[in-house]
Structure formats: C-alpha cells, structure tokens
Design a protein that fits this description.
Elements (H helix, E strand, L loop, with lengths): L25 E7 L12 E7 L7 E8 L15 E4 L6 E7 L3 E9 L7 E13 L7 E13 L7 E21 L4 E21 L2 E4 L5 E11 L7 E6 L4 E10 L13 E4 L6 E6 L6 E6 L4 E6 L4 E5 L6 E8 L5 E9 L1
Parallel strand pairs: 2-9
Antiparallel strand pairs: 1-3, 1-14, 3-4, 4-5, 5-6, 6-7, 8-9, 9-10, 10-11, 10-12, 12-13, 13-14, 15-16, 16-19, 17-18, 17-20, 20-21
C-alpha cells in the first residue's frame, strides 16, 4: 500500500523480486492534463529530492495485473509473466515478461480499429528495466512493431504501419520522491525512445511503400521506481524537454495480502460487509484509521482509542475500499481491503 512517509539514507536497488508479486493487483493512476507547464522532472544525480506534488488529479485510469494464462491473445505471448488490462482499449491487453535479468514489454492486443482485434508484438521484446538496477545502470536496444489492418473501401486492400524503435535507458538518479500520496526512497529511470513510423499499402498483389514520408517521434520518460511496487510517478517529455504527460499512483494493491488476525497488526470483520464493519488493530503505535475508496479519496477517518473500531457502511456505495492504519507521524503500519456488498 502506498502512502508511508519515509526517509532515504542510501540508494535502493530494484531486482526481479520487486516485480514478483503483482498477480491480481490493481494500480490506480492520477493524470494531470492542465498544469503541465508547471511540472518538471527535476535534476539527475545522487541523493536527490524530487517534489512532484504539483502533479494534479484531473482524471484516473486503472490497470489490473493478471495471470496471462487463458487471456485473449496469450498464445501469441507464450513467455508472458503478466497480462495487463489496458485502459486505452475497449478490449485491450498488454503483455509483460519478468525474468532474472530484465522486465520486457512483449506487445499488446486489442480493438484498435473496430471491430477487429489486432495482435501487435514487439520483435524482439522491448526492455523496460534490467536487474539489478542501481544508480547509472544503463542499456540500449532496438525493436519493431507491425500493425496491419484492412482498408475500407479498397484500394489499397490493406495498410501496414512499420514502427522501428531505438531506445536508451539510464538510472540517472536516486533519492526521495514526494507525490500527493507520500514520500518514497526511489531510483529515477530516464528512458529515451526514438520511433520511426513507415506506411505501406497492399496493391496489385504486393506490399508497396505508400509514398508518405516516414514520421519520426522522440519521447523521454522519467519513472520513479520503488521497492516492491509499481513506479509511483511518471513524467513524459518531448525531445525539447516539454512535458507532455504526467501521472502518479493514487492507489496500489501490489504486495497487499488479505489480513490474517494471527499474523497481521490488523484485520476487518465481517468482510464482505453490508451494514457495518469493525477494524481491529494490534499495533501499539497506531493512532489513526483512514478509509479510502478505489480512487484514493478519503471517505472516513477515526482516531484509534481502543483496539476495535466500528464503522457504518449504510451511506457507502457497494464496492472495494481500503483502510490505512498510521502512526502520529503519518507512517502506515498496517493496511487491508474492505468489500462492501
């Protein structure tokens, strides 16, 4: 669960284990579409402090990390570790592979031009991160994508877009990053992608160059990676350093397991609940319980004056909620899920 305020005394390291427990997880991201001119990725280097609280919450999207077995198009991505429900598609999935040396983007499938489902692999897979990642870890690579779809009405019969992507990655800084949710020890990754799109048409029984000049695009993406979780913030710029998109994680269930009263500092009952629910806390330093919804909005809050605190659910909508139990200094000491039905 995100939200703990932490102090970094040394740089962290990202390994394969940090990406090994994402099955069934949900990540909710907040995006800023208004204040881009006032946001900066900050400086590179050691022991940095990145204040990203200027990133606003204009709209959200939700990603779900699933077991790829049996998912649509999964047979086209046999090495996939995760399938991700992609919010940009009506029915769209991206596929990732996590192995001992790297995190790789394998490709995606989805309804790009209705009604057909299109499968678009990266050949070879596009590396996103290598393990272990520390300050100054770097790599480069090249990949291609081919999107092909029928043209209606013909001619030409079909259109093919070939994308050639060259990329470089550098962990260019470490330190503390602060979003509107909390402060985290992190590594900053700078990922530069150079993309050339060329269009071809199928006419008279063969593929031919369309005659349109190739389009070229450069994007620079800054990701703030933390241990055992999804990157807590992302800033994307163009080749000139102009910020084009920003986001931060409002809520993540990566790494959260259902609470067990014998091993956890807290648990909730009944769960699922309908009329009311009780949260039981066993942590001696806990001071505040906060209930938030799936978009990260605070719904209820109470001071901890006794081990068990009851909440009414009569005025709450049905669905998934989360609780955070914190110390007086804001540090989260326990958390869990609440399902209202």
């Amino acid at each position: 669960m995100l939200g703990a305020a932490l102090t970094s005394t040394a740089q962290i390291t990202i390994t394969q284990n940090d990406l090994s427990n994402w099955y069934g997880a949900t990540v909710i991201q907040a995006h800023d579409s208004v204040n881009l001119s006032s946001i900066s990725p900050g400086n590179a280097g050691a022991s940095q402090t990145w204040n990203l609280t200027a990133i606003g919450n204009d709209f959200q999207d939700t990603m779900q990390f699933l077991n790829p077995a049996g998912m649509p198009c999964s047979s086209n991505f046999p090495t996939a570790t995760y399938g991700i429900l992609v919010p940009d598609f009506v029915d769209g999935y991206a596929y990732l592979s996590v192995n001992a040396t790297s995190l790789e983007f394998l490709g995606f499938c989805g309804v790009i031009i209705p009604p057909d489902t299109m499968t678009v692999p990266f050949t070879p897979p596009q590396k996103q991160l290598t393990f272990p990642s520390t300050f100054n870890t770097a790599f480069t690579g090249q990949t291609k994508q081919i999107m092909q779809f029928p043209n209606n009405p013909p001619p030409p019969d079909s259109i093919r877009i070939v994308s050639t992507i060259n990329y470089t990655s550098l962990i260019d800084g470490w330190g503390n990053v602060t979003t509107l949710v909390g402060t985290y020890p992190s590594l900053r990754g700078k990922y530069t992608q150079y993309k050339i799109d060329s269009m071809f048409v199928y006419m008279l029984g063969s593929w031919q160059f369309s005659g349109y000049p190739p389009s070229m695009d450069t994007t620079i993406t800054y990701d703030w990676w933390i241990n055992n979780n999804f990157p807590v913030a992302t800033i994307e710029t163009d080749a000139n350093g102009q910020v084009t998109s920003t986001s931060y994680v409002l809520q993540s269930t990566i790494g959260i397991e259902e609470a067990n009263p014998e091993t956890s500092h807290s648990f909730v009952f009944p769960n699922p609940a309908s009329e009311s629910f009780t949260i039981v806390n066993h942590h001696p330093d806990a001071k505040i319980i906060t209930i938030i919804d799936a978009l990260g909005k605070k719904i209820l809050e109470a001071n901890i004056t006794k081990p068990d605190i009851q909440f009414s659910a009569k005025n709450l909508n049905r669905g998934m909620y989360f609780y955070l139990i914190r110390k007086a200094n804001g540090e989260t000491v326990s958390s869990g899920k609440i399902l209202l039905e």
